[in-house]
Write a structure and sequence with these properties.
- With about 475 residues, the protein is mainly beta.
- The protein is built from 1 helix and 34 strands.
- Among the domains are: about 30 residues; about 80 residues, Immunoglobulin-like; about 110 residues, Porin; about 120 residues.
- The strands form 6 sheets. An 8-stranded antiparallel β-sheet has the order 14-13-12-11-18-17-16-15, with no helix packed on it.
- It starts with a helix and ends with a strand.
- The N terminus is likely disordered.
Length: about 475
């Protein structure tokens, strides 16, 4: 092959190679990704902790994914769609950066500052509420709600409805600006075929309270209401309060109801927890604790008699006056026991009392003048033929002397007083003594509590209706007081 031919051949091959390279470069240039553009974006308002957020990043071009930096905790960026959703959990001012990609092509960075407001002041804390009594929702026994709200707006708690107990979790619904009350809600599951119960509540700003409703779909609505527990109550620290729990005058003499008075010793800590030692007029005893509200209120919901009864209501303690008052609803369904086995209807006990301070050395309780037969116990109701009085002596140093012998103490009364707590406990070997009929006498027991302000001991005695060990037991009233009171 001559040289001229070889040169011509090489020229054609080189030209073809160069054309191939050019075509490949043009193809690559035609398919290179184009960077998208993020459009300016400014949230229309501040956020707020636990407030629901839903925004959409806007852009031009093609986006295969999104990324972010600095988004508040609790919010999420959907990297495929650019949707921003969730509920912020921490207040603050945030600098947030967004970027969009089209394959390897990167958009401009969109940056913005956004403020997340905290929950309204006073929202965080533990709330205690009582539920109205309702025959269908809680068997007429009432109920309670304990709800703890965290700074993130999340809440946990427990709701009781008579014998039922359910744990709950959720998030508050909030609106920025601090003018709309935080609110929440949850469902309480029930066995098929019953629909869940619906609970809705709000936390009114600045009131340290909780209000709400409970209902089944389309059914009766009952109320729940309560308070936020106070975590600092120095004026209550170490204080003891003695309270009596007495039936209304309209029920006196009606043996359907226990006729005696219950009592409660209540001691508070500086963190607002009250510890109760309670004894009701039918002899039912309980120890429990309650949380104190900022206004000195406590809510009580106590199931009794193996869930066949309850005690529920509010009592308020005033650290300035040293007095306390309240109302507690008490009910008992039929329950196998010697004391009011048939139960008794709902009725309300009046709670009254005061801060109790034990007498100091050399001082007399309630300022009673030392003497002989200067104090008395008065027993009434519980099937007694008539009320009677037992005298005793309170001498110097609050020394108690109880007379002996049938003539001075025919009822066989014996008791002791714990002046540290104000509690009186005693017995009577013949509490229904009838002269010349000792064979019919019945023994019983009693307890009472010293109530400051009234200058009395108030309580109850328990007396069987017969000498039989299985006979029913009734409750009567016992009052201790100075003779000239």
């Amino acid at each position: 092959m001559n040289s001229r031919f070889r040169l011509i051949r090489f020229g054609f091959l080189g030209l073809a190679f160069l054309l191939l390279l050019a075509g490949t470069s043009q193809s690559r240039a035609a398919t290179s990704p184009v960077a998208p553009v993020l459009l300016p974006f400014t949230p229309d308002t501040n956020g707020v902790v636990s407030g629901e957020i839903s925004y959409q990043l806007e852009y031009t071009g093609t986006v295969t994914r999104f990324s972010q930096g600095g988004l508040p905790r609790g919010l999420n960026l959907d990297t495929k769609t650019g949707a921003i959703t969730g509920r912020p959990e921490v207040a603050g001012t945030y600098t947030i950066h967004f970027t969009a990609y089209n394959g390897t092509a990167k958009s401009n960075t969109l940056s913005l500052e956004w403020t997340v407001e905290p929950l309204p002041e006073g929202t965080v804390g533990t709330y205690h509420a009582l539920l109205d009594r309702h025959s269908w929702y809680n068997g007429g026994y009432g109920g309670s709600l304990k709800l703890t709200v965290a700074s993130t707006g999340r809440y946990t708690g427990v709701i009781t409805r008579g014998v039922h107990r359910n744990t709950i979790t959720g998030r508050l619904d909030t609106v920025p600006g601090g003018l709309v009350n935080p609110a929440g809600g949850f469902e309480i599951p029930r066995r098929s075929p019953y629909d869940p119960l619906e609970v809705a509540f709000t936390l009114p700003i600045g009131s340290a309270s909780i209000i709400g409703t409970l209902q089944e779909p389309g059914g009766d609505v009952i109320q729940l209401a309560g308070y936020r527990a106070s975590t600092s109550t120095p004026t209550f620290a170490g204080a003891q309060w003695n309270s009596s729990l007495e039936i209304s005058n309209s029920l006196l003499g009606d043996d359907t109801y226990p006729q005696g008075a219950g009592w409660a010793v209540q001691k508070f800590t500086k963190t607002g927890i009250g510890y109760w030692t309670l004894r009701l007029a039918d002899g039912t005893s309980s120890t429990f604790s309650t949380a104190l509200g900022s206004s000195g209120q406590v809510g009580v919901h106590l199931m009794l008699y193996n869930n066949a009864g309850s005690l529920q209501g509010y009592q308020v303690f005033d650290p300035n006056s040293g007095l306390t008052a309240g109302s507690l609803g008490w009910i008992k369904s039929a329950f196998a026991s010697r004391s009011y086995a048939a139960g008794f209807p709902l009725h309300y006990l009046t709670a009254t009392g005061a801060r109790y301070t034990p007498p100091t050395a050399g001082s007399m309780i309630f300022g009673i003048t030392p003497g002989t037969s200067n104090v008395r116990l008065v027993f009434s109701e519980a099937g007694l033929g008539s009320p009677y009085t037992q005298l005793f002596s309170l001498g110097t140093g609050n020394r108690v002397t109880i007379p002996t012998g049938t003539s001075a103490n025919p009822y066989g009364i014996r008791f002791s007083i714990n002046f540290s707590t104000g509690l009186i406990t005693g017995t009577g070997t013949a509490m229904d003594y009838v002269e010349n009929q000792p064979q019919n006498s019945r023994s019983g027991s009693f307890s009472a509590l010293l109530i400051p302000g009234r200058e009395q001991a108030v309580g109850h005695f328990l007396l069987p209706t017969s000498r039989s060990s299985t006979s029913a037991i009734l409750s009567g009233s016992v009052i201790g007081e100075e003779v000239n009171n």
